[in-house]
Amino acid sequence: MSFVNGNEIFTAARKGHYAVGAFNTNNLEWTRAILKAAQEKKTPVLIQVSMGAAKYMGDYKLVKTLVEEEARVMGITVPVIMHLDHGNYEAAKECIEAGYNSVMFDGHDLPFEENLVKTKEIVALAHAKNISVEAEVGSIGGEEDGIIGAGELADVEEAKQIAALGVDYLACGIGNIHGKYPANWKGLNFDRLKELADVIDTPLVLHGGSGIPQEQVVKAIKMGVSKVNINTECQLSFAAATRKYVEAGKDLEGKGYDPRKLLAPGTDAITDTVKEIIDWLGTPSVD
Ligand code: 13P
User: Fold this and answer.
1) 106 and 88 Cβ atoms separated by less than 8 Å
2) How many CA atoms lie within 13 A of 227 on its CB side?
């Protein structure tokens, strides 16, 4: 088992025009399902936790321990990056203290100058401990754990300034949104992605990766996106498989109500989804 920061993995991805998946964990089953998929595909994986999911599970330390101990018990050998997703200033500092491999400081809702100053501070604290940092410019649309973004496009000048602080990966709004995409969604803005990728070498991050048509994801990766964030897609597969189990009356057969049985189809469905997404991203195997 190897826990690593994201520097080499995402730099190589940007150079190689492929991406590495960043999957949100929500509990023990999610953690196992993601680790299992990465191990079966023999690819590096980033497991991330939002502030809300960490609160739901306990705290940041608990989540890190859960991921590390599951990886140990499961005999995971592929590189794993433990990452904080959309952290505010306090959460980023707490996860740096707790020894995460990587943290996102999301200062997009702050006045730009304050985002700059705070991102710089987080970079200094994190890099002193060999921890990678993701920053954000231009809000990602939709709602995630109470963080609501309007989905505007990242300003290229602002993105350049944030990248120049030495952040290791950069989330930029390019029309992407968290959660399900509405039927009238206009698609990713490739013109803005090109403008950003032309002047920024930092690996770029595509948030709201669930539900974007495959060809758009692949095109974005070819243009400079190296980290693709996925949460909703796994939630939907888990819910659909669990619904199927219950609707088939399986929970009423024998001890089908036992959570170890009841949650198994959903957990397997997450593994299948993660494996399918890894294929889309073109992540090469570490062997
Ligand atoms: P989705 O839930 O839309 O996949 O977004 C995940 C994400 O971007 C986490 O930061």
Assistant:
1) yes
2) 32
- Give, to the nearest 10 degrees, the angle between helix 214-223 and helix 264-281: 50
User: Residue 213: which domain range?
Assistant: 2-232
Tokens of 5: 């920061």
Q: What is the CA radius of gyration of the chain?
A: 18
Number of domains in the chain: 1
The answer to whether residue 140 is domain-embedded is yes
List, as residue ranges, the binding site for dihydroxyacetone phosphate.
Answer: 179, 208-210, 229-232
pLDDT at 20 over 80: yes
252 belongs to a structural domain: no
Using CA atoms, how far apart are residues 23 and 46, in angstroms rounded to an integer?
A: 6
The predicted model gives 160-165 an average pLDDT of: 97
pLDDT of residue 182: 86
Q: 159 vs 183, which has greater pLDDT?
A: 159
Domain membership of residue 156 (yes or no) is yes
Average pLDDT (242-252) is 98
Residue whose Cα lies nearest atom 9 of ligand 1: it is 229
Residue at token pair 């819910």: 239
Measured distance CA(42)–CA(287) in Å, rounded: 7
Q: Is the minimum distance from the CB of 235 to ligand 1 under 6 angstroms?
A: no
Residue 97: give its domain's CATH number.
3.20.20.70
- pTM listed for this prediction: 0.95
- Residue whose CA is closest, atom 5 of ligand 1? 208
Residue 164 has φ and ψ, to the nearest 5°, of -65, -10
Q: What is the pLDDT of residues 178-231, one digit of tens each?
A: 898 888 888 999 999 999 999 999 999 999 999 999 999 999 999 999 999 999
Q: Is residue 38 part of a domain?
A: yes
